[in-house]
Amino acid sequence: MISSFTVATSVEHALQLKREAGSQGVFLAGGTEINRLGTQLTGTIAISLANLPIQSKEKGKNAVTIGTMGTLQMIIDTGFVPDYMKVACRFCASRTRRNMATVGGNLALQRDDSYLMPTVVAAKARLILATLGPDGSIVEENIPIREYLAFKDHFSDSLLLAIVLNKPTRFVSSKRIALTEQSMASVTVALGSDLSSKEIHDVRLCTAVKGSGVFRIPEIEETIANGTYEPVDEPVVFSLPAVEFVDDFTGSATYKRYILGTAIADLFRECRAALGKGGQT
Ligand SMILES: Cc1cc2nc3c(=O)[nH]c(=O)nc-3n(C[C@H](O)[C@H](O)[C@H](O)COP(=O)(O)OP(=O)(O)OC[C@H]3O[C@@H](n4cnc5c(N)ncnc54)[C@H](O)[C@@H]3O)c2cc1C
Q1: Which has fewest Cβ within 10 Å: 26, 36, 82, 159?
Q2: Closest ligand 1 atom to the C-alpha of 26?
């Protein structure tokens, strides 16, 4: 429960407040998770990001930059944002929540039913984030989103500033499987690939599986890239020691493996069909 609320006046101020608050500090963006009944977040000191200049969306020659305070609905309403990103934002079916929920909050959470994380990993997006150095000065970094996914704890005190989509011709497609649009997803999965050489290469396959977390599947990325992947509608098989499929209210472990396997096969067929069309979805 939030017991203290401060509006940060600058990025530096937000980071200073977070440092002072320690594990009790949370950056309040849209607040949809912080204020959600049953949230696992335990911080009590809210640091509002509402006045920070991290909402803008910009289109450069080969890149679209989205400030992390941009809401999911703002992304959908911005013409130049790639369609695959809009599809991922629509995975949040409630327009009311899309009007509040931010890109930064979604990426920071990395929920096991994450709307955006699989898609931005498949897109090979980059993340601009800020931390405070030991002397209190701001250190800004521009990292691949896969690094943020792989080393989540390392970045737990960082403030996400913007996401950069800088692969304009990349094929990216995502699927979310849930009982209804409003239900929690059992599986969300995205496939990305560079098709510019008229072959599928530089593949990223990332999934969020309820109860298991968000992870890439390098084994299948490799088979897709080297041409040995067979798109069969069967339960997915791979060995990632840290990943265990579990039974829960969204479906059994067997169901999740099956539904993930069929979704990957579908995404691969889409990707193959996009070859020759320049790759864009
Ligand atoms: C009924 C309901 C269902 C939901 N279902 C889903 C779902 O299926 N999938 C899903 O992914 N989410 C779901 N959510 C959670 C939420 O709506 C989204 O993840 C949303 O995008 C979070 O963004 P926010 O701005 O509201 O985050 P907030 O609630 O403001 O913050 C969430 C976390 O992100 C951190 N944070 C926020 N902004 C930044 C930043 N710029 N830099 C660093 N850290 C930051 C905060 O410290 C906090 O820990 C659901 C929420 C509700 C209420």
Answers
A1: 36
A2: 47
Q: Is 30 in the pocket of ligand 1 (CB under 6 A)?
A: yes
pLDDT confidence bin for 278, thresholds 50/70/90:
low
Q: What is the pTM (predicted TM-score) of this model?
A: 0.96
- Does the beta carbon of 177 lie inside 6 Å of ligand 1? no
Q: Candidates 3.30.390.50, 3.10.180.10, 3.30.70.260, 3.10.310.10; correct CATH number of 171-274?
A: 3.30.390.50
Residue pair 246/187 in contact (Cβ under 8 Å)? The answer is: no
pLDDT digits (tens, 9 = 90+) for 190-214: 999 999 888 999 999 999 999 999 9
Which of the 8 DSSP states describes residue 242? Answer: T
* Cα dihedral: 216, 218, 224, 228 (round 10): -140
